[in-house]
User: Which sequence fits this backbone?
């Protein structure tokens, strides 16, 4: 029997929560994957350890200050070392021997490498959602032009993708589940005194700081509605959100005959990551199995739009479309960073996002240049409101 050839992968953002878990999947299936490229933003020590373990052809550290340390550590090995975001985009444009790129960076800065990967015909497993929020229409258009598959990694979108396998009939609704974040039951008084530590302490998922804050404001769920819209080509009016604190149902799709197909599992990101990496195969994974009798109940609730203005702004931005989601994302990235640094309060995040959205000039079907320009303008504007 012929040995199946290994899937050659690049992991952009290998030291973050998703990247680390992706490498845990690879570690279990070393015979299936050949890690070619690893990139990190700042965590050069972990990047070096990963490089020594997985022996990629190339590693890239975004923060150029760390280049010398990475270079020295990897000098005895046949591993090329580059620095800077532009090197990630270059690697995506030029290395031919990559079958799948996992984008697991944080924020809008992932857009350029994502576009470069698609343009050079590499399949993309998308965990980095901000580029899809800001430029989803363009990303999907380019992917279609270059016959590139886009595989979802976000647990909700993986659930929808799994529910759609073998389906050819139209989707009636997409129902995204949300754990509700750490403040699902918080009183208005408690919301007044949200600290960074409380905001990043998510009840169900252990994640990076940026996405944890987005989960606390429910902006993350708004982003995921926009992400779902583009990934699955559904009308904004056909996407719903339901709070489901147990995080067992990861999302659902309803069809015109009234059937609803849900994907369920213990909450563990290795499952959607592994599914994206091994698709269309399902491989064994050692996560706890659901015992329904023990679980006793799955509960659901309507999200409280009034307490979580970021969610209602995201729904509005999704409907307006054009550059509005890009502007919203830019303002949100600046505001969340300021919150994490302790420069603004939690409740100022939606205020700044609202101002950022209002500042954007409306462009219905923006080019990539217009997306980058909007991002830059709204970032500068939002920063000026904080200083
Ligand atoms: Mn998610």
Assistant:
């Amino acid at each position: 029997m012929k040995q199946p050839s290994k899937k050659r992968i690049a992991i952009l953002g290998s030291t973050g929560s998703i990247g680390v878990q992706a490498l845990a999947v690879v570690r279990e299936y070393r015979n299936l994957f050949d890690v070619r490229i690893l990139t990190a933003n700042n965590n050069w020590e972990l990047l070096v350890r990963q490089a020594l373990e997985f022996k990629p052809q190339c590693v890239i550290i975004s923060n150029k200050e760390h280049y010398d340390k990475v270079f020295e550590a990897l000098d005895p090995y046949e591993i090329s070392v580059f620095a800077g975001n532009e090197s990630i985009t270059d690697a995506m444009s030029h290395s031919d021997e990559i079958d799948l790129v996992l984008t697991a960076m944080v924020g809008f800065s992932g857009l350029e490498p994502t576009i470069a990967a698609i343009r050079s015909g590499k399949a993309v497993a998308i965990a980095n959602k901000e580029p899809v929020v800001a430029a989803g229409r363009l990303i999907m258009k380019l992917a279609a032009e270059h016959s590139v598959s886009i595989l979802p990694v976000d647990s909700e979108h993986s659930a929808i993708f799994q529910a759609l396998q073998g389906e050819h009939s139209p989707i009636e609704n997409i129902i995204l589940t949300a754990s509700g974040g750490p403040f699902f039951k918080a009183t208005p008084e408690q919301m007044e005194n949200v600290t960074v530590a409380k905001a990043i302490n998510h009840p169900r998922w252990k994640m990076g700081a940026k996405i944890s804050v987005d989960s606390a404001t429910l902006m993350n769920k708004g982003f995921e509605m926009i992400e779902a819209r583009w990934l699955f080509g559904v009308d904004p009016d056909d996407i719903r959100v339901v709070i489901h604190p147990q995080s067992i149902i990861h999302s659902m799709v309803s069809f015109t005959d009234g059937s609803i197909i849900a994907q369920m599992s213990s909450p563990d990101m290795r499952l959607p990551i592994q599914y994206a990496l091994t698709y269309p195969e399902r491989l064994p994974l050692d996560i706890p199995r659901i015992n329904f009798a023990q679980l006793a109940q799955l509960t659901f609730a309507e999200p409280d739009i009034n307490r979580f203005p970021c969610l209602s702004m995201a729904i509005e931005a999704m409907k307006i479309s054009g550059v509005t989601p890009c502007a919203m994302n830019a303002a949100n990235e600046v505001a969340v960073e300021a919150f994490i640094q302790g420069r603004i309060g939690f409740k100022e995040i939606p205020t700044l996002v609202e101002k950022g959205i209002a500042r954007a000039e409306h462009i219905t079907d923006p080019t990539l240049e217009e997306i980058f320009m909007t991002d830059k303008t709204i970032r500068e504007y939002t920063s000026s409101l904080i200083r």
